[in-house]
Protein: F-box domain-containing protein
Amino acid sequence: MPATAADLPPDLFKNILDCLQTSSRSPYHGENSIVAVTKHELAACSLTCSYWATACRPRIFTHITLRSREDVYTLLSFIEQPNSPLPGYIKFIRISSVLSGLPQPWIYLVPLLSSPKLNPFIDKELYISQPLDSDGKDRVVDLNLHLALPSSVPSTPFIDFSDIALTDIHLNTYSDLSRFVRTTPFLGWLRCERIAWTTAQEETLLPGSSRTSYITYVTMEKCTENWKAMDLLLGATYLMFHLPGSFMEGRHPNGRQYRRLLLDVTERLSVVALVRSIQSVIDSEQSLQPYVSTSAEPFTGEQHFYISKIEFD
Structure:
């Protein structure tokens, strides 16, 4: 007699789930899973029996993607239901915004999800992308979070995004990107992929913003000038590096702890020049794809270079 799903030992099923990764999860927050599945497939598994439902549902709702105001209201209705277990499942929320035409503002609604039922340290990532026009060409856009505000809402910082990913966006100048970083006060992690700007500029982002920036991680891949990842990182009012052990000072709003590192203008320019020189060497090697990254965790592989320690005499 062939075995059925009911014959599968619960512990074995749990081990199988631990090896799965839903395809809608953020690539920056997923573990080293073996098999990719869709949430619909996990939902189908949850209908097998009560035990499977109990095991599958937390994994279905651990990572959530919001793409419209309707998604925000739907999630809010689930959270506000009495005795709903959903708030306890959510660990990561991705807000996906597409820069096309004049979309109806909705990102400003995300703070409505700040329910006491939710973990206050849930990771929220803003993912911004730009689709090609109907003729297959990209167009220059204005990268401004406040464009997502309706006219009735004051244009003040309204979302504490600590993680932002930008993909396939064409800007006018590099200053548009640096301005975006300066006006996102709680930004900690910035990931840029295929970000282009038309006008080449030599200026670097130096201290001058009155706002405090917690930015500690910047990556640029296949952008116009990848080396400017370090320029953005050092353009913060001050640097906040994540350090192991007991050397910690201060706390980022998302709960991470950091130690402050102050650099003067000359030191900042020296670091940026160093990274630009390294980038030039990498660009001269046709076998390598340049990838600039500054992070608390080291990267491996010949396509990456990692700056873990900077000293000044």
